[in-house]
Design a protein that fits this description.
This protein has two domains: about 35 residues, no CATH class; about 80 residues, RNA polymerase II/Efflux pump adaptor protein, barrel-sandwich hybrid domain (OB fold (Dihydrolipoamide Acetyltransferase, E2P)). The chain is elongated, with a radius of gyration of 18 Å. It is built from one helix and ten strands; from the N terminus they run H-E-E-E-E-E-E-E-E-E-E. The strands form three sheets. The chain has a four-stranded antiparallel β-sheet, with no helix packed on it. A four-stranded antiparallel β-sheet has the order 7-6-4-9, with no helix packed on it. Strands 1-2 form a two-stranded antiparallel sheet. The chain is mostly beta strands and about 150 residues long.
Length: about 150
């Protein structure tokens, strides 16, 4: 099965009310699912004072778990940080973002899909590089909710 055939199956699944599609051959297995919600930050219980150790998160501020949320890719595609190669990125670390604001573009099957913020807050981390392939549900951004 080639990439174009897989893309056609993704489009087919998207146009139907099906939530899962499985394709199996002798040497190939493919399962496609849709309609799964984006994961949000899961609150972590506060440890006892005597059990506390410093927590270091690479390249982002330490914040309470309920304030730090992720924005994930809703599809497989290519991540673009700006509307064109010579444009400024939609967002950078430290920017204030608003719910509904475009954060990036994910290109899938020659279609450009705007990825918008589900939250108001401050951009803490951009987790992918421009032009990088991304997977379904891969974290693209970390936002500190306001």
């Amino acid at each position: 099965m080639n990439l174009e055939e897989i893309r056609e199956l993704v489009m087919l699944l998207d146009k139907t009310s099906l939530t899962e599609l499985k394709v199996e051959t002798e040497d190939f297995k493919l399962t496609l699912r849709k309609g799964l919600s984006r994961p949000e930050a899961i609150p972590i219980p506060e440890p006892k004072a005597e059990d506390k150790m410093p927590v270091l998160l690479p390249s982002r501020e330490v914040t309470p778990a309920q304030e730090l949320v992720s924005i994930s890719s809703p599809m497989v595609g290519t991540y673009y940080q700006a509307p064109s190669p010579d444009s400024e990125p939609f967002v950078k670390v430290g920017d204030i973002v608003n719910k509904g604001q475009t954060l990036c573009i994910v290109e899938a099957m020659k279609l450009m899909n705007d990825i918008k913020s589900d939250y108001d807050g401050t951009m803490v981390e951009v987790a992918v590089e421009n032009g990088q392939p991304v997977e379904y549900n891969q974290v693209l951004f970390w936002i500190k909710r306001s």
